[in-house]
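To illustrate the input format used throughout this study, we show a single complete record. The first block contains the structure-token representation of the backbone; no residue identities are included at this stage. The design step must infer an amino acid for every position from geometry alone.
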């Protein structure tokens, strides 16, 4: 495994992040534990989750699965850089209640204690804001975070799904208050979705944030979906935002060109999607959310995959990025 610093911090993390969103909804507890053991054996030390994962009536279930894995001992918790998130409403469906979501000081205090209990640990290494909160002053958020750091409940704070200007505002406010500020941004970023290159990634680099791309294969679209379609596996190969993407003839032509290119070079699409992100400036490591051990093994192989210049150039032709702002939208 290869490692790097998380943004401007001294924290050393693997260049592959183990995403756990499927643990519970898609992968049972025993298999989830086996995947985490395999990830640790492969040198993956950066695990990402969120308080809301488990979804529906099972919100928090994913954190509970990590907690029972940590409780097995064997230095599991000591070896892992643990990241979770706060924002989503943890109340039962149809039973929403004020102050049980977003980023008020009250909810942050409540949410971190609940996550610590589910995770069966005394601290969270990276506590991330899952979304911006338009109603809560940034000063209030940093006050709550600084208290948690002083209490030893968290070590660092990060953002997720923040705009570039919001990263700047949040860290300028932290600087003014004497807080350390955000150290990471978790954003949607992959070959098929490169808008983060316009402002989010430049802002992250300017403020010393490590970039942690989520959905690196765009919901399966970059994982060999057309090949799987031919083999009869398309029902499981795409999900969410990419489920209907192939109905768009332009998108389908892009993906076909992508798969044809990689077949020519004897490369696996899913591994290339991850390896490409590892070539991008500012990227700490993409989040791979395996449902199975085989998917984890494929993601681990991607870390050592060196893409030839010819392939990198061809990928840029198939999936051209927007370029930086303001050039991306102005003369």
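Output of the design step:
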């Amino acid at each position: 495994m290869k490692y790097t610093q998380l943004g401007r911090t001294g924290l050393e993390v693997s260049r592959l992040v183990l995403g756990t969103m499927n643990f519970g909804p898609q992968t049972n507890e025993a298999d989830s534990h086996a995947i985490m053991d395999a990830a640790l054996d492969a040198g993956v030390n950066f695990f990402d989750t969120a308080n809301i994962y488990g979804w529906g009536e099972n919100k928090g279930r994913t954190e509970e699965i990590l907690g029972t894995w940590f409780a097995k001992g064997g230095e599991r918790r000591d070896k892992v850089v643990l990241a979770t998130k706060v924002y989503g409403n943890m109340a039962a469906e149809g039973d929403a209640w004020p102050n049980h979501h977003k980023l008020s000081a009250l909810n942050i205090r409540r949410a971190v204690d609940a996550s610590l209990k589910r995770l069966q640990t005394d601290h969270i290494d990276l506590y991330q804001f899952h979304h911006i909160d338009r109603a809560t002053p940034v000063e209030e958020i940093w006050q709550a975070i600084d208290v948690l750091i002083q209490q030893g409940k968290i070590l660092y704070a990060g953002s997720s799904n923040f705009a570039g200007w919001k990263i700047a505002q949040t860290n300028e406010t932290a600087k003014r208050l004497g807080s350390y500020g955000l150290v990471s941004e978790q954003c949607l970023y992959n070959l098929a979705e490169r808008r983060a290159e316009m402002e989010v990634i430049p802002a992250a680099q300017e403020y010393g944030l490590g970039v942690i791309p989520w959905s690196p294969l765009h919901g399966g679209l970059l994982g060999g979906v057309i090949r799987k379609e031919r083999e009869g596996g398309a029902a499981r190969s795409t999900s969410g935002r990419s489920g209907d993407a192939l109905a768009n003839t332009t998108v389908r032509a892009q993906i076909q060109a992508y798969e044809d290119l990689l077949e020519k070079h004897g490369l696996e699409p899913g591994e290339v999607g991850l390896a490409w992100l590892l070539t991008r400036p500012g990227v700490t490591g993409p989040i791979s959310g395996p449902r199975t051990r085989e998917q984890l093994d494929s993601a681990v192989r991607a870390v050592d995959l060196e893409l030839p210049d010819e392939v990198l150039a061809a990928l840029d032709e198939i999936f051209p990025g927007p370029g930086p702002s303001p050039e991306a939208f102005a003369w």
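Structural context for interpreting the output: Residues 211 and 283 are 5 Å apart (CA to CA). The first helix runs from residue 29 to 41.
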